[in-house]
Structure to design on (241 residues):
């Protein structure tokens, strides 16, 4: 049986906090658990916060603005962007240095202090590994860690949480070579296990104001190790570039 439950009562995370130790001491974890963490909590602990008052927007930022867009936030987005995929009316779909294609390069004001924006972790896989190592040391358990963010999807309305950082599990379940019920060999099926766990974890949150950034998913079979970078479509296989 798979169980999914949020960790309640966590303090507001500030820059410099040891997030792994806080999680390890907040709930009795078991080996085999998957600890799912909303990226903003990780980013806050790592100081990935920008005060807009310190930002001078460029001509390009002004050009990308819409009628209700802060050019300073667009400038921060551009600083996190390796490629602007599409833009319209102040909405920027961008590719980040991680290879993620998402709105605003992951830069967001929700759950940020007034006048600030929160960025993605510099290396979210490294962040996941560090948290996993701290949890192992503090709680003497072996867990997997997934760091998540909410992404939109082409041709689909709404957002869903996906994995942007992974440690302690293989993010892809590779079924190539196995047989379906008709005995036909599967040629291309790979299940985005880490994304599925991320989306399941988000079901415990009903809104942005819940204050439930850490979720435990228990009972999911997994093995191996890997990183969220394995979930990024390689450029030579991307039909939408």
């Amino acid at each position: 049986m798979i169980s999914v439950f949020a960790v309640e009562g966590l303090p507001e995370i500030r820059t410099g906090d040891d997030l792994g130790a806080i999680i390890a001491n907040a709930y009795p974890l078991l080996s085999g658990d998957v600890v799912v963490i909303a990226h903003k909590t990780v980013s806050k602990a790592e100081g990935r916060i920008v005060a807009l008052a310190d930002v001078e927007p460029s001509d390009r930022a002004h050009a990308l603005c819409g009628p209700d867009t802060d050019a300073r936030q667009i400038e921060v987005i551009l600083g996190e962007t390796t490629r602007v995929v599409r833009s319209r009316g102040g909405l920027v779909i961008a590719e980040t240095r991680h290879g993620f294609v998402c709105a605003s390069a992951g830069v967001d004001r929700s759950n940020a202090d007034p006048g600030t924006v929160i960025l993605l972790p510099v290396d979210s896989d490294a962040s996941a590994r560090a948290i996993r190592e701290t949890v192992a040391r503090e709680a003497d358990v072996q867990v997997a860690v997934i760091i998540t963010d909410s992404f939109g999807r082409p041709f689909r309305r709404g957002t869903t949480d996906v994995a942007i950082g992974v440690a302690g599990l293989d993010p892809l379940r590779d079924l190539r070579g196995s047989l379906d019920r008709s005995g036909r060999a599967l040629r291309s099926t790979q299940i985005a296990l880490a994304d599925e766990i991320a989306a399941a974890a988000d079901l415990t949150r009903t809104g942005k104001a819940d204050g439930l950034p850490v979720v435990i998913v228990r009972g999911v079979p997994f093995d191996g190790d890997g990183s969220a970078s394995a979930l990024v479509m390689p450029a030579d296989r991307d039909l939408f570039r």
Residues 139 and 198 are 23 Å apart (CA to CA). The two ends are 40 Å apart (CA to CA).
